[in-house]
Design a protein that fits this description.
The chain has helices at about 5-15, 20-40, 80-85, 105-135, 205-215, 215-220, 250-255, 260-270, 285-290, 320-325, 330-335, 345-360, 360-365, 370, 375-385, 390-430, 445-455, 460-475, 485-495; strands at about 50, 60-70, 75-80, 95-100, 140-150, 150-155, 160-165, 180-190, 195-200, 225-230, 235-245, 275-280, 300, 310-315, 340-345. The protein has 19 helices and 15 strands. The protein is α/β, with parallel strands linked by helices and about 525 residues long. It has four domains: about 5-130, NusA, N-terminal domain (N Utilization Substance Protein A, Chain:P, domain 4, 2-Layer Sandwich), CATH 3.30.1480.10; about 135-205, Beta Barrel (OB fold (Dihydrolipoamide Acetyltransferase, E2P)), CATH 2.40.50.140; about 280-425, GMP Synthetase, Chain A, domain 3, CATH 3.30.300; about 435-495. Helix 5 (about 205-215) packs antiparallel against helix 8 (about 260-270) and helix 18 runs antiparallel to helix 19.
């Protein structure tokens, strides 16, 4: 290959593959080293490097050789006078790097290096694809369907890459044909032997998020913010939005004039119904809106033992709408808000409220008016059971009755939770801090007692002291723990000696410097 031929070919590769000069030069120089080793059968232990001038195409190979008086092996030895041309201070026995380009190396190198160069170019292209699509994770891409079957659809993307849309990431019921243009969100990018494996999705909630950003300028510019999305692909979705600027209607901005914005998204999602609701920091208001299109009579929250449950009460004619087909509306509302939602009709909630009052004497004592109204409530419920008409006043009476009982029930639970927190705080203050860092083994309890406590999650002396102070009967109620075991625990706790906590070193007192005394001048 002549100089001009090489330079033209080199520049053509750069332009065609859109790769950096450094990547291509590195691939070619590495190929030249490989070609040289093959041409002269050089050892891999010998240091060899190649340099190429991309402007002239000149290739120069350098190899490390030993300086000798008489060359016996030209591949690894060089005369002293030749070594001095490179390093004037070279001596016999030294190792020097000298040019050793074979006479016909240009032709041999071109033939040998072609496959290596092509391989390096493919690797560089795959690396560029990988880096590009890793940055696209969570973003929408568009491509042309190349092949499709029941398991997956292959889509041609930018940079000659291929994306895979698995069947479980398609919208149920949608079908694609070859040459269809498809939009999807990049779900995951994995490195494969034949290039990046780009997994696409049209069923993920982020696909709906990106479509909204594209169709609604207010979302794209941050004037309206998407707070949550719940979606059952192809059927229904709920989106909670809020305005970040005063005077902006977030729901109206998403829907658009005559629904033109949301209809474009519905069409892309194959007629998936989309409910846009306004997010609210008050969970009662937020949950009420999330249940839409049903109208809600009341929402009652409970966070007992870390389980966030919302009891939603609706009128009888709103019950099926609130629950939705196969429970879909309730499921989406729960996903959107993060609360477990229990939907009841007003009549069912009233019946439950009566049973609470009758079974909980403490609650009944706090609600004497509600207790007095039970006969009237039961009469209305009987009319309802007989499918007789109920007046608006009777509906209001049921609603107020349920509201009083539910709110007082919530208040009692909250008071009990606060009392428990105070009890824990008090008990913890009575346990030395160092006890929580002392393993239970130090108590030297009987083996079976020790094993039972550890299985119950009590593995430090501090944890055991807390359990005993909070409720000794709870410890006594553990299987295998009897009065004798409790006595053993109490004796060992009484005998334990806690180390004194280490005090921080006292700061050295600042030296007092006597102020000079200034004598008053005599008048």
């Amino acid at each position: 290959m002549t100089k001009n031929e090489f330079a033209l070919a080199f520049n053509e590769v750069l332009e065609e593959k859109q790769l950096s000069k450094e990547i291509i030069l590195g691939a070619i120089e590495s190929a030249m080293v490989s070609a040289y080793r093959r041409a002269v059968n050089a050892s891999t232990a010998q240091h060899v490097e190649a340099k190429i001038d991309p402007d002239t195409g000149k290739v120069m190979v350098f190899a490390e050789k030993e300086v000798v008086e008489d060359v016996q092996e030209p591949k690894t030895e060089v005369l002293l006078e030749d070594a001095h041309k490179v390093n004037p201070e070279a001596q016999l026995g030294d190792m020097v790097v000298v040019e050793t380009t074979p006479a016909d190396f240009g032709r041999v190198a071109a033939q040998t290096a072609r496959q290596v160069i092509q391989q390096r170019i493919r690797e560089a292209e795959r690396s560029n694809q990988m880096q590009y699509f890793e940055r696209q994770v969570g973003e929408t891409v568009s491509g042309i369907v190349q092949a499709t079957n029941a398991q997956a659809t292959t889509i041609g993307l930018d940079m000659k890459a291929e994306g895979v849309l698995p069947a479980n990431q398609r919208i149920p019921g949608e079908r694609f044909k070859v040459h269809d243009r498809v939009r999807a969100v990049v779900l995951e990018v994995k490195d494969g032997s034949r290039g990046p494996q780009i997994i696409l999705s049209r069923a993920h909630r982020n696909f709906l998020r990106r479509l909204l950003e594209n169709e609604v300028p207010e979302i794209y510019h941050g004037v309206v913010e998407i707070r949550a999305i719940a979606r059952e692909p192809g059927a229904r979705a709920k989106v909670a939005v809020m305005a970040t600027q005063a005077g902006v209607d977030p729901v109206g901005a998403c829907v658009g004039i005559k629904g033109v914005r949301i209809q474009a998204i519905v069409k892309e999602l194959h007629d998936e119904k989309i409910d846009i609701i306004q997010w609210d920091q008050d969970p009662v208001v937020y949950i009420s809106k999330a249940i839409s299109p049903a109208r809600v009579s009341g929402v009652y929250l409970s966070e007992a033992e870390g389980n966030r449950t919302a009891t939603v009460v609706v009128n009888e004619d709103q019950l099926s709408l609130a629950i939705g087909r196969d429970g879909q509306n309730a499921r989406l509302a729960a996903k959107l808000t993060g609360w477990r939602i229990d939907i009841k009709s007003l009549a069912e909630a009233a019946g439950d409220a009566i049973r609470k009052l009758q079974s909980d004497l403490g609650l009944a004592a706090l609600l004497p008016t509600a207790m007095e109204s039970i006969p009237a409530i039961e009469e209305v419920l009987a009319k309802k059971a007989e499918n007789r008409a109920i007046t608006p006043e009777e509906f209001t009476m049921l609603s107020q009755f349920v509201d009083r009982v539910e709110r007082r029930t919530i208040q009692i639970k909250e008071d009990a939770a606060r009392a428990e927190e105070e009890k824990v705080t008090t008990a913890r203050s009575e346990v030395p801090t160092v006890a929580f860092g002392m393993p239970l083994e130090q108590l030297e309890l009987k083996e079976h007692v020790f094993n039972i406590l550890v299985e119950a999650g009590i593995d430090t002396i501090g944890a055991l002291m807390m359990s005993m102070k909070m409720d000794a009967n709870k410890v006594l109620g553990m299987p295998g723990i009897g009065p004798k075991a409790i006595t053993n625990i109490e004796e060992r706790l009484a005998a334990i000696q806690f180390p004194e906590p280490e005090l921080p070193p006292a700061e050295p007192a600042a030296e007092l410097v006597a102020e000079p005394v200034v004598e008053a001048e005599s008048q």
